[in-house]
Amino acid sequence: MLLSPQRTTCFRITLLLIGSTLLFAIPARAAHRPAKCCVWRVTNAKAPFYLVGSIHALSKKDYPLPAPYEIALRDSRRFLLEFDPNRHVEFEKKFEAAGKYPRGQDIRSKIDPELLAWLRQNVMAVKPDDRRARRERGGNFDSEFAYKPWWIAQHLVGPATYSKSSLSHGLDNYFVDRATREKKEIAGLESVDEHVAVMGGLCDRDSEFILRDALDQPGNAEKEFSRMYKAWRKGNTDALWAGDSRLRKQAPWIAARFVDNRNVKWIPRIEAELKAGKPTAIVAGALHFSGPNSVIKLLEKRGYKIEQL
Fold this sequence. Notes:
Elements: E1 12-15, E2 39-42, E3 49-54, H1 67-75, E4 78-83, H2 88-98, H3 113-122, E5 123-128, E6 136-140, H4 149-154, E7 156-157, H5 164-168, H6 171-181, E8 185-190, H7 192-200, H8 204-216, H9 221-234, H10 237-243, H11 245-250, H12 252-258, H13 260-276, E9 280-285, H14 295-301, E10 306-308
Parallel strand pairs: 1-7, 3-9, 4-8, 4-9
Antiparallel strand pairs: 1-5, 2-3, 2-10, 5-6
């Protein structure tokens, strides 16, 4: 699913646990090019039409990208991402607002008391200090009661592990930067409000699950990302789908909310783009092109012929 990472946030959360790493360095590119990529072409479309599975964090070593990505960039005159990146500022404001409880409510009455006690003991907030450039100031978790569990989970960061450079080299940013520079059209599969609602619309129970899941998996995070990264490099959608199996087993309704349900909503929009006959690339998280209810499978059911490059 992979929501677009925020470039700026009002605060971040730091676990006071030695060795906890929730975001991490990206593995170096493989020595040889894979036979396939997370790029597909709709062969019976009126004009060149590509589906591009993205990964939101890469390193400089991942560039230049394999040829199929560059072909999709070259051939397309229009790009649709998960939401319109030209409205990123609006998204950030609404996303943060969705991460806060309404006035008069806070996290203390929304989550298990034992989890709250653990957070108060083990987590601190780190905020930018406007009085000193590039400095931060810390405070205890009690200062962040207004934020919902899913928001806290999104901002759990081990010390010195959050790599903005890695995010800036993500495939999404690369496509957007190239498209902008070449004055090509950019739009979104979802409105800003729809994109915010993916996380912002979680109920209290599911929001707490997301936080617990983030806390339970810090030791495995690097290995899991490495497996997903390697699968992406090889264009291996079976491995990508398998990598998401834990969430589908533990909370299938949340997994469907993040991926399958959105795929279904996207199909009419994608089909409208296909019928418009303009060279186009759909760029979304690679997981949206994996599994039995992927964008690819749903389009094939409608008679479109798709080949992986």
